[in-house]
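Budget justification aside, the reviewers requested a transparent look at the raw inputs and outputs of the sequence design task funded under Objective 1. We therefore reproduce one unedited record. The lines immediately below are the structure tokens for a 420-residue chain.
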């Protein structure tokens, strides 16, 4: 029996209730694309150091990476709205406090301390939208891969707009304008998204005494393997952000930073559109490993670029190579955990990207201060190469669990399903 043709974007967007969460979800996730670059530009302006700016951004990323999965578990347990509404208020307050400290030229330790709550309270809109897709497509599993591609495109579209908008506000209005806009958009967009109650996934209540069934999504071996892969992807985002900003300063055209990063993100978005429209014959595990190898190779010559056109062109290529492993990873996650752990699993992926980005921002900032932007561009290569080696070693864990198997405990007796 031949496999049915994979449905496309038209069928996906015709899903009942999809637009009720897509539009407010896009508005609500926009601040996430502005946070890191806005923080780097503000702290660099007030301290004069990329290392300090990178450290502040790194603390924010680490705090988000550590707290996002816990927020995801709360969402799976209590629902999206009860967790999101307090979260957006706390985040806006934390960001405003960080702005005040930076403009007051507070000591570095105070900036780093204030960066903790700013990162810890970042609303996890992307995972929440992905959970809504998973719930809406429960009876149309063939569309899950298309939904993952669509979400990757949406994420990258925000990273086309966000950095350009943040850079324009920070360089053309006021160094703190990017973070101020991030806080305002968080409140407005998050509130609009939380108001869409009908499309929110239902809370999955575990039976009494089923402690194993409530284990963390990270207890699934495949989720841990993908978390490592996403750490490497985060190193690309973080290394590119800091190094491109430093490169723009070095050539005397700081305003081009947003354009260069936008080109990089546009490549990711374009690849996501194409990737989601293709019917693949090979399994997701094989595609993930091949695509990840391509990403590492694309990052290799970044440190050699010495003009903006060359960097923009190679940045586009690197962006094209990010979407395939990112989309495939998110597709695999949905098959590795039960419905009651989806949001947490997605937040582990988002948190891993943020953690990798935080580490890359810190290391790239130090290298850039000491040896210039070319040294900072070594970070994406190192991050993806290390993650690729680990991913190859853990590839046997990327197996899809049948519906009866849950993270932390087995209900059914069927063996895991290979994904090649």
């Amino acid at each position: 029996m031949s496999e049915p043709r994979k449905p496309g974007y038209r069928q996906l967007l015709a899903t009942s209730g999809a637009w009720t969460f897509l539009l407010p979800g896009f508005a609500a996730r926009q601040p996430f694309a502005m946070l890191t670059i806005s923080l780097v530009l503000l702290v660099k302006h007030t301290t004069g150091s990329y290392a300090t700016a990178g450290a502040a951004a790194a603390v924010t990323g680490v705090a988000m990476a550590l707290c996002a999965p816990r927020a995801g578990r709360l969402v799976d347990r209590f629902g999206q709205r009860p967790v999101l509404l307090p979260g957006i208020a706390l985040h806006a307050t934390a960001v405003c406090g960080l702005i005040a400290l930076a403009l007051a030229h507070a000591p570095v330790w105070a900036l780093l301390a204030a960066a903790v709550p700013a990162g810890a309270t970042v609303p996890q809109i992307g995972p929440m939208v992905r959970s809504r897709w998973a719930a809406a497509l429960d009876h149309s599993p063939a569309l899950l891969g298309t939904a993952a591609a669509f979400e990757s495109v949406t994420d990258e579209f925000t990273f086309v707009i966000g950095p350009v908008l943040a850079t324009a506000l920070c360089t053309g209005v006021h160094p703190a304008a990017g973070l101020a806009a991030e806080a305002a958009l968080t409140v407005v967009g998050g509130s609009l998204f939380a108001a869409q109650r009908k499309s929110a996934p239902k809370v999955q209540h575990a039976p009494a005494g089923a402690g194993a069934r409530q284990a963390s999504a990270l207890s699934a071996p495949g989720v841990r393997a993908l978390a490592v892969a996403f750490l490497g992807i985060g190193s690309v985002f973080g290394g590119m952000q800091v190094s491109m900003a430093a490169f723009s300063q070095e050539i005397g055209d700081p305003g081009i930073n947003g354009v260069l990063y936008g080109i990089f993100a546009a490549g990711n978005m374009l690849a996501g559109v194409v990737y989601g429209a293709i019917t693949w014959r090979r399994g997701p595990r094989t595609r993930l490993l091949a695509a990840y190898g391509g990403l590492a190779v694309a990052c290799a010559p970044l440190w050699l670029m010495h003009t903006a056109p060359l960097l923009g062109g190679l940045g586009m290529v690197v962006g094209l190579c990010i979407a395939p492993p990112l989309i495939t990873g998110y597709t695999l996650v949905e098959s590795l955990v039960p419905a009651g752990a989806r949001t947490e699993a997605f937040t582990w992926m988002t948190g891993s990207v943020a953690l990798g980005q935080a580490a890359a921002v810190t290391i790239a900032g130090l290298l850039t201060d000491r040896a210039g932007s070319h040294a900072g561009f070594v970070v994406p290569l190192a991050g993806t190469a290390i993650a690729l080696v680990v991913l190859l070693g853990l590839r046997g864990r990327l197996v899809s669990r049948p519906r009866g198997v849950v993270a932390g405990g087995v209900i059914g007796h069927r063996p895991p399903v290979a994904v090649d």
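The radius of gyration is 20 Å. DSSP finds 15 helices and four strands in the chain. Computational costs for records of this kind are itemized in the attached budget.
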